[in-house]
Amino acid sequence: MPTLDVKKKEVASKKVKPSGLPICEYQERGHKWVLENQTKEVVQREHNSGILVVEVTDPKQQVYMFHCNNVTVQIKGGKFKSMIVDSCENCNVVFDTVISSFEMVNCKKIQVQTTGICPVFGIDKTIGCTMFLSEQTLGITQFTTSHSGEMNVSFPDGSGDQKEVPIPEQFVHKLVNGSVVSEVSELYH
Amino acid sequence: MPTLDVKKKEVASKKVKPSGLPICEYQERGHKWVLENQTKEVVQREHNSGILVVEVTDPKQQVYMFHCNNVTVQIKGGKFKSMIVDSCENCNVVFDTVISSFEMVNCKKIQVQTTGICPVFGIDKTIGCTMFLSEQTLGITQFTTSHSGEMNVSFPDGSGDQKEVPIPEQFVHKLVNGSVVSEVSELYH
Fold first, then answer.
1. What is the DSSP letter of A134?
2. Which of A93, A136, B92, B156 suits A8 as a labelling partner, its CA being 20 to 30 A distant?
3. Quick one: three-class SS letters along B176-187?
4. Do A142 and B179 touch (CB under 8 A)?
5. Tens digit of each residue's pLDDT (9 = 90 or more) over A124-138
6. Which residues of A touch B157 (CB under 8 A)?
7. Distance between CA atoms of residues A83 and A120, nearest Å
8. For the segment A162-176, what is each residue's pLDDT rounded down to a tens digit?
9. Which residues of B touch A170 (CB under 8 A)?
10. Whole-prediction pTM value?
């Protein structure tokens, strides 16, 4: 059935497909770890592992992850400044603590776990992300969202169980005395 | 400079470019007006006018506008059921009253004016829309938004002037006693 084939091709072409050379390097200038075009196959071949491990050595360091697909990244070494995940799909990231924020932009299907503290998760133009919080960061973490959907947060509920709740993606606005008053859609009530 | 040319081409290819045959017809089944692949040039050629006028004749009628670019549509005849603007760019729509809603999805740069009443504007996956409200609909209209940005609402401020305010697109969420509490970003405070 040629029609079906064409449709499949179209859908596939919209996915994030790493094309350039894989990069995993530390750049002195900017104190920045750069991970680009990483895939499960690249990590397996170059690191002989299912997990790409990055070892931060200074709280000033940042991590920038770009154009990666189907890869699990673990940031070891404790506290670091911030992390940006840009144009990635089907990726998992585990880290301990970031000082400022963990941001996702133009992503699909990202899972992130903080085992320490993450003050802010920034989510922009992203469809599908789940954030796993530690007990420790539970009362601290804020989520800043725009142009995004299918967001969930999973956290220990205090009685030994894990709880998952959605982050609202639909809002209702009204004009009241010339100002806009915004509320979460009643989908979430 | 060939590099610049390539970039220009890339940007242009992302625009909504009507490709199929232009359609402007009333479908008995579904009581639906269908406008597809309309452009300024098509409207000028086929209707000898700068404005595509659709005349609704029954409140049961709906209007579906798809894949149009750089076109101004006026819905005459008063009250009708609803309108959907799907995958359109740089379009203007003027109508009197819809009974249920006016929806935009996958659009860019749309201007809409209601001269009567519009209970709900639904905005999904849309960047850039301005809604011009009548005095009459001011206290009634709600805006339901998701995955969208650059939204504005313009309305008579009661003293003869027009006022324009942005509709928030960034939100901040926190976990409070195991539930998500959401607020408009402080950008809008």
1. P
2. A93
3. ECCEEEEEECHH
4. no
5. 999 999 999 999 999
6. 178
7. 11
8. 999 999 999 999 999
9. 144-146
10. 0.87
